[in-house]
Amino acid sequence: MSDAVSPLAPTSYPEMPDIAGVRLATAAAGIKYRNRTDVLLMVLDAGTSVAGVFTTSRCPSAPVDFCRESLKSGSARAVVVNSGNANAFTGKRGRETTELTARSAAQAVGCRMDEVFLASTGVIGEPLDAGKFAGVLGDMAATATADGWEGAASAIMTTDTYPKFASVQVKIGEVTATINGIAKGSGMIAPDMATMLSFIATDAAIASPALQSLLAEAVQPSFNSITVDGDTSTSDTLLMFATGKVDMAPVTHADDERLGEFRAGLHRLLVDLARQVARDGEGASKEICVTISGAESDASAKRIALAVANSPLVKTAVAGEDANWGRVVMAVGKAGEPADRDRLAIWFGDVRVAVDGERDPAYSEAETSQVMKRDEIEIRVELGLGTGSWTVYGCDLTKAYVTINGDYRS
Amino acid sequence: MSDAVSPLAPTSYPEMPDIAGVRLATAAAGIKYRNRTDVLLMVLDAGTSVAGVFTTSRCPSAPVDFCRESLKSGSARAVVVNSGNANAFTGKRGRETTELTARSAAQAVGCRMDEVFLASTGVIGEPLDAGKFAGVLGDMAATATADGWEGAASAIMTTDTYPKFASVQVKIGEVTATINGIAKGSGMIAPDMATMLSFIATDAAIASPALQSLLAEAVQPSFNSITVDGDTSTSDTLLMFATGKVDMAPVTHADDERLGEFRAGLHRLLVDLARQVARDGEGASKEICVTISGAESDASAKRIALAVANSPLVKTAVAGEDANWGRVVMAVGKAGEPADRDRLAIWFGDVRVAVDGERDPAYSEAETSQVMKRDEIEIRVELGLGTGSWTVYGCDLTKAYVTINGDYRS
């Protein structure tokens, strides 16, 4: 694997404030990678509520099965994440591994096993030796600190070229709450599931059912609207924790009127993290933002936007800085959604390249070429049928994607 | 564009016999390419019946619209095909072009306009200047000969690296009929439509409705079971002609009992042509044959097979000769079809790599590596749920695909 950092990496990173009630520790267990951290332990104070969204894969990993069970308790005290091995398609041994890890974490933190959450990311199908890190969880729990967010984001990376984290502060009623988030993901990224891995924590007091509603809603325009390769991981896991350390009457319902700013802040945070994932798409040289408007419904717009953002021919054209809007028409046509060829208009950036089903009379190749040199390529299609719209974030398809994925295991 | 021929090109080509009632001519009109033929005229004797299957795109090309209309006549006398420009997304001018071309062809051949069929392939969105070739159709009709099949296959190529043609002879009742076919296609190839372009002709006497049934059936395991990049063309057109020159009582229904061998021969011919298209997939270095068995239904097996064959991560792994069956599990899981992780078994070639939801205890990396060096990679998944099965043909994803599609227009 190359050590090159994506040209789309953030140029500056936010300060990550502490979240009262959350402590973090990382360790280097040598699961697959050498000379880097690959285990993360999050320790959560008693009283922390939890929400989660997981892959829709019919073949989920053992940790996903485990988390779905734990989620029923509504309470979280520990999260163990390892990178390098996904513990997916590992059969009975996979379940033994999650049991052993959860038991070790519960002992280390002093909680019930159904308050432990697990996530693993990396190669599928290889047995994961939990012995490698189960033994260090006790030490990690003892040394965990509140300021470990950046390190946590680094420990969960696989083919990521940069750590992904973000933070927002919002008013919730009279008080101020903080929301921190980290994420990882670079390949095997497609929407209609959670994401690869992302962990969000807030010090607000929000009961699990309300937290679950907020998270499920915020995931739609963010992690469920990104795609790198249209491939859905067996391990996609998005967990959110609310420690309740802020001095406030707990939110018990998602329609609590104090949530306005919190909801907007959570959306902003998740879109930020999701775009960081899309921009670190394996081999990506450009981000692609596809907006469909004028569709019969938002759902229809989303399906068309995904068809465009997932099209290998659109993605390679963007990589080649070719404003090949014919391929955009192709992708709109193949989506199977209502579309009228002779009403379509298409923009690359702010340049309209097609209108009324044919090339814009004012089309300028030179002007369009300038747009295609940018790092962020905005493709906009107006269908002229209704009021549905949606935006999807993806990236281009380069030779580097083929290189990275042609020799991942070796 | 490189002049390199795919490593998967056929090592030998069949002799193409004449089809009584079919004459062919090609010309170099300089539509996009230099120093090669780019126009094909097929001249069909009076009494020729016709069937057709077209793209399911919501944004079809002007020639597809035109053919759908002509098909209603049930009669075919002329086919005009050009390569280099798809006449797709060209609005009113596109329709004027099809009108002009069809009128010129009808004059040249001496038939009605609704007995003319048109197909165009190449760049989308550029106006096609029919004047470039409409004027030469008269000469072409006068000089067309029965032995032009190989030349016809070459004239319709775009990014294809080799011409695609095949022929079978079959008994139909007491007599022998011949079926010839040509095809083109290399990128923007995905199933659930016809294909790129393919033209089939037989000297058998089969009425249009029966011919349509036979074609619609034969397209399912052939052109509708291949994929190069999951992208669906706006121009996919498969036309079949029956000249009725064989001395036989005409077939009027698809359930005519004389059709047994004909039906099998047509299936064989279309699978042959479809695999030639898959093997010429842009940048392909290996053919991938994905067979799913033990599914709840054939339709379910097909959807899973397509998810595997279209997965960029599976395709890049094959390109890298990496038996990464974890990615096969991922693709099975994302298909959204019934599957039980813990009952899956997976083979690469004849080597079983996974069984009962985990790595095969007898797994040998060395043995599997040998399989991955082959030109044809067979991936087989047994789901253990039912009796549904399907096979899909695709190809790997290499850096050459990115190169070819990053600078197609320029």
From TrEMBL, chains A, B:
Signal peptide (from-to):
none
The record's listing under InterPro entries reads: Arg_biosynth_ArgJ (IPR002813), ArgJ-like_dom_sf (IPR016117), ArgJ_beta_C (IPR042195)
A GO molecular-function annotation: L-glutamate N-acetyltransferase activity, acting on acetyl-L-ornithine as donor
Q: Which residues form a coiled coil?
A: none
Enzyme class name: transferase
Entry keywords, A to Z: Acyltransferase, Amino-acid biosynthesis, Arginine biosynthesis, Autocatalytic cleavage, Cytoplasm, Multifunctional enzyme, Transferase
Q: Where does substrate bind?
A: 158, 184, 195, 282, 405, 410
Top-rank taxon, per record: Bacteria
Q: Where is this site: Cleavage?
A: 194-195
Protein's GO biological process? L-arginine biosynthetic process; ornithine biosynthetic process
Q: What is its main location?
A: cytoplasm
Q: What subcellular locations does the record give? A: Cytoplasm
Functional summary from the UniProt entry: Catalyzes two activities which are involved in the cyclic version of arginine biosynthesis: the synthesis of N-acetylglutamate from glutamate and acetyl-CoA as the acetyl donor, and of ornithine by transacetylation between N(2)-acetylornithine and glutamate.
Q: What is this protein called?
A: Arginine biosynthesis bifunctional protein ArgJ
| Organism of derivation | Aureimonas fodinaquatilis
